Prior knowledge:
Elements: H1 5-15, H2 21-28, H3 30-48, H4 53-60, H5 64-71, H6 79-89, H7 93-97
Helix pairs in contact: 3-5, 4-5
Amino acid sequence: MKISFFFLxxxxxxxxxxxxxxxxxxxxxxNIFIMCLIGERLRDLREEKCLSLYELAKRTGISKSxxxxxxxxxxxxxxxxxxxxAIFFDVSVDYLLGLKDY
Length: 102
């Protein structure tokens, strides 16, 4: 079962409003950090190539709205899309996931 980061944030804010994000991190650790790195790295790579979301969508065949959600860490990204983006940007999937620095 997949549970979104924002569901967890709302849940922990409701059950323990004083702790919020720290409650999530204590339960899920590095998984949340990795999810946040994907969006940051996608945006950085896109901006390095001076591409708009529209241009990246057109070149990769991935919808602009999906790219925007991933950059803003609003949803998970499937492995097939990670591979497509890694090939396009000439980086490893590990780099996109935050497991390696270039």
